[in-house]
Amino acid sequence: MLGKKVPFVTFRTRVRDGSIEGPNPFRWEDKTSDDYFKGKTVVLFSLPGAFTPTCSTFQLPDFEKLFEEFKAEGIDEIYCISVNDAFVMNAWAKAQDVRNVKVIPDGSGEFTRKMGMLVAKDNLGFGMRSWRYGAIVNDGVVEQWFEEEGFSDNCESDPYGISSPQNILEKLRAAKIEAA
Ligand code: BEZ
Hints:
This protein is α/β, with parallel strands linked by helices. It has a single domain (10-179), classed as 3-Layer(aba) Sandwich (Glutaredoxin), CATH 3.40.30. 30% of the residues lie in helices and 28% in strands. It has 6 helices and 9 strands; from the N terminus they run E-E-H-E-H-H-E-H-E-H-E-E-E-E-H. Strands 5-4-3-8-9 form a 5-stranded mixed β-sheet. The two termini are 25 Å apart. The model has no long low-confidence stretch (mean pLDDT 97). Residues 48-49, 52-55, 124, 158 line the site of benzoic acid.
């Protein structure tokens, strides 16, 4: 994906709407790839599933904690995407008390498939999900790519390291020093 533009898709998000009464004051809001990526430099990280252990214990909370350090390196937003619907992604963000990282629901898997990152996880009863990867995306173009090794269907393990926030931050800092 290095040097390529991220696919243009429409994401079905759920947003809070104070004008809606009752216990579930949310409405649908379509957001496109342009809404998320146009005119910004962002970190995008993608993982196999909301609420899964590595994602909930390390990857999402560590990106959340390191947000200011990413900002200092010129990152405008950090996006967490997963092949999960908006209800699941919002519930996960709430459970994790996420305030800095923005979650993107790719419930249909269209974005992940067009990124070439869709894998079968039927061995876990998950169906089609995302291989774990991270990227620096500048104005919609992938500038740096952090894909875990062993891309495969029904992988027995869950490699995690290359797409960790610590590794991505280190590579961002190194690229800045090299460019200076
Ligand atoms: C994990 O994040 O630990 C995990 C992800 C996918 C499947 C199983 C576990």
